[in-house]
Specification:
The chain is an alpha+beta fold. About 40% of the residues lie in helices and about 15% in strands. It is built from 18 helices and 20 strands. Strands 12, 14, 15, 18, 19 and 20 form a 6-stranded mixed β-sheet that branches. The protein is extended, with a radius of gyration of 48 Å. The protein starts with a helix and ends with a helix.
Length: about 725
């Protein structure tokens, strides 16, 4: 016999053994069902079940038999015989498909099989399953044969009453709740035998209930009014739900009295919190670059309840320039995290020279991390850390120079916005009506006026300026721009006006000759721009700022006349002058010392308490209690049930309105429902009353009055008595 024929016979015996083993294991099941059905419902049901069972058993057995094919035989031979050189497939291959070298190898394998035949690869009999199955079949047949025949019962009750009594209420025999968290959490699925559970948001819940006798329908009724109908699968009722928020529900089977008032079960949805990013290095938010420092170490730690992504983005921002000329450059670096998925560390050593950092500039870094939530991950950013290269210090400053401060006033940041608004208005002019264009231009002019007045404070000004001289034959554009008044303000100055300063009376003759600048300002203007009123700026800076005010006034004039195009040149020149003022960056502050009130030495350590008395402390304002809560607290304290429904309805409305204020609104819903279902339950009433008490505002704390003879007073009195004693 050739090796090919021997291997074919071995494969046939193996497949036959597998078929017989499967039939021996599975045949007792349909036979037992057929025996039971033959004893009670009748022979036709037993025949149908036996036929269907036999067909199913044969199908399963044939499927198991197909598992043992040529590939299986080759794998088993290679695993059992190492001398076959993992070439057993050549023994079953066709001659035409083999090369000369493969035929030579096949001859060698056949010779080895003739010397030592192939092992018996048939699977062993499954006695551990076959014997119990046939014993159970024999026991079932014995019970069926010995079970007494049913006899019709003779009752005196009417047929309708007998049928009603025969119907029993469905009873819950078993229950289970399967929890399948989302895959990204890494939490394994679990099954609990209770109907309450706590699971991550997005988990899939599957109910599996079994009743006897079977009800017509089973529903899950939630506290917010939703209903989910369970589906019957064989002898069980099943349903599935994706848990998105915490909720309460009850199981309501049809035909069960009081099912609508059954206890509520609670499902808690655990939210997926966003990741938390902590800065490990540097330890401080602001780091000054040392002269010998060449790199900057950054270390971050990202924590999350279910894990963070392995990659994170480091956002770097470099500042260039100072004052209004600051520009920003953005850079992004991708970091690879190390460590556990729930606690990853990100580290990077930066070289400030790579970013072109210069003296007086900053390098700001912050880490951006994503967690593993699907489908939409959550993003978190760390606190910003700053690397600052300090500017050059001012050396050798003495006197007032030692009080120089680097200042960037907030007022130097608005002229650019006025220019941007004016240019935007010009771009939108074709789409705007004439009235709307004039209104918006006037509003920008108002902003320009406010900015001009703010800058005027640095020159000691308070308002628009003084009155125009009565004889002014110069055009408006030739007047001194820093004191040029607006039209509406000029009218206000023409009327009698008391500005709170000691100006000369109207009509008073000038004290000096014609052309004296000081006399002209004394008679017609406000002399605020004096050295004592504008000591923050040096004369050159004040002159530059005065020119900027003049350009602002001209810009305001054209904006008020609905001509933003003509106002832009003045606004640009004002911006350039402001930049020149800003580049000075030095103001001088008056050197002052600490001035404390003098101490009355005569009253120190004298023990004289005359004139001292107790002061009544003001009572703290108590927070007004909610009327619905106060009424519910009073009503729940009584044992009567007449007003209980109205109280519970009021509390239910209050809970729905104050849901965001409560720590656990579902506990309120459950307590109200429990007391509504059982008004006489003392524990339910106490639980709800405790929740109401926790929501009531705390009463204001009271202060105890201090006694007249306190400890210090008694001590001093004893000293006086000892001193006056002879």
């Amino acid at each position: 016999m050739s090796a090919r024929t021997a291997l074919g016979n071995l494969l046939a015996r193996t497949r036959r053994r597998a078929l017989l083993d499967a039939l021996a294991q599975l045949l007792p099941v349909p036979l037992a069902l057929a025996a039971l059905l033959w004893r009670w419902p009748g022979g036709w049901a037993a025949a149908a079940v036996a036929t269907a069972g036999l067909v199913a058993v044969i199908a399963v057995a044939l499927r198991r038999r197909r598992h043992f094919d040529r590939n299986w035989l080759v794998q088993q031979l290679d695993a059992a015989r190492s001398d076959l050189d993992d070439s057993s497939g050549l023994l079953l291959a066709d001659d035409a498909a083999l090369s000369p070298l493969q035929r030579l190898q096949r001859d060698r394998l056949e010779q080895r099989l003739r010397d030592r035949p192939a092992p018996d690869l048939r699977p062993s009999w499954s006695t551990g399953a076959i014997v119990p199955a046939w014993l159970a079949l024999a026991a079932t047949c014995l019970v069926v044969a010995l079970w007494p025949a049913a006899r019709p019962a003779i009752v005196d009750a009417p047929p309708a009453a007998s049928a009603a009594a025969a119907v029993e209420a469905p009873q819950l025999l078993s229950q289970s709740l399967q929890l399948q968290p989302p895959a990204y959490t890494g939490v394994a699925s679990s099954t609990t035998q209770t109907l309450e559970a706590e699971a991550p948001v997005g988990s899939t819940l599957r109910w599996r209930l079994r009743y006897a006798p079977q009800p017509r329908a089973v529903d899950l009724v939630f506290h917010d009014g939703r209903r989910i109908a369970l589906q019957r699968e064989g002898g069980h009722w099943t349903a599935a739900l994706a848990l998105q928020a915490s909720t309460l529900y009850r199981v309501v089977p049809a035909g069960v009295a009081g099912a609508e008032s059954a206890p509520l079960y609670r499902l808690d949805a655990v939210p997926d919190l966003p990741p938390r990013v902590r800065v490990l290095a540097p330890e401080r938010g602001l780091t000054l670059l040392a002269p010998s420092q060449r790199d900057w170490l950054l270390q971050f730690e990202a924590l999350d309840d279910y894990g963070v992504s392995t990659r994170a983005r480091l956002l770097l921002t470099r500042t260039e320039g100072t004052g209004e000329n600051i520009r920003f450059q953005e850079h992004v670096r991708v970091l690879q995290g190390r460590g556990d998925a729930r606690s990853r560390r990100f580290e990077l050593r930066l070289r400030p020279a790579d970013f072109g950092l210069q003296r007086g500039e900053d390098l700001v870094a912050r880490l951006e991390v994503l967690d593993n939530r699907a489908p939409q991950p959550q993003l978190a950013r760390s606190a910003s850390v700053i690397l600052r290269w300090p500017p050059e210090p001012v050396l050798g400053a003495e006197g007032l120079d030692g009080l120089a401060r680097q200042v960037l006033p907030a007022y130097f940041r608005s002229q650019r916005q006025i220019i941007i608004d004016a240019e935007a208005l010009l771009a939108e002019r074709p789409q705007l009506a004439a009235d709307e264009f004039e209104r918006r231009s006037d509003l920008i002019g108002v902003d320009q006026r406010l900015l001009r007045l703010r800058y005027g404070q640095f020159l000691g000004e308070e308002s628009e300026g003084g009155r125009a001289p009565p004889t002014s034959d110069l055009p408006t554009s030739d007047l001194p721009t820093s004191d040029a008044p607006a039209a509406d303000d000029a009218q206000a100055h023409d009327a009698p006006h008391d500005d709170g300063h000691d100006h000369a009376a109207e009509g008073a003759a000038p004290a000096a000759g014609f052309g004296n600048v000081g006399d002209v300002l004394e008679a017609f203007g406000h002399t605020h721009d004096i050295a004592e009123a504008a000591t923050l700026l040096d004369p050159q800076t004040r002159e530059t700022l005065r020119k900027a005010l003049g350009e602002m006034w001209q810009s305001e004039l054209h904006l008020r006349q609905a001509a933003p195009g003509e106002a832009l040149p003045y606004a640009y020149r004002a911006l350039e002058l402001i930049k020149q003022v800003q580049q000075a960056e030095r103001i001088y502050l008056q050197r002052v010392g600490t001035q404390l009130p003098p101490v009355d030495e005569s009253r120190r350590l004298g023990g004289d308490r005359s004139g001292l008395r107790n002061r009544a402390l003001p009572a703290l304002a108590a927070e007004e209690a909610d009327a619905a809560l106060a009424a519910a607290w009073q009503s729940l304290g009584t044992t009567g049930v007449d007003t209980l429904p109205a109280t519970l309805d009021a509390l239910e409305r209050w809970t729905g309105a104050q849901r965001d204020r409560l720590d656990d609104p579902l506990a309120w819903v459950a307590a109200i429902d429990a007391l509504r279902q059982d008004p006489g339950c003392a524990d339910c009433r106490a639980t709800l009353r405790g929740l109401v008490w926790s929501a009531l505002p705390r009463p204001a704390g009271a202060f105890g009055r201090r006694t007249d003879a306190d400890a210090a007073g008694r001590y001093l009195d004893a000293l006086h008595a000892a001193r006056e004693a002879p």
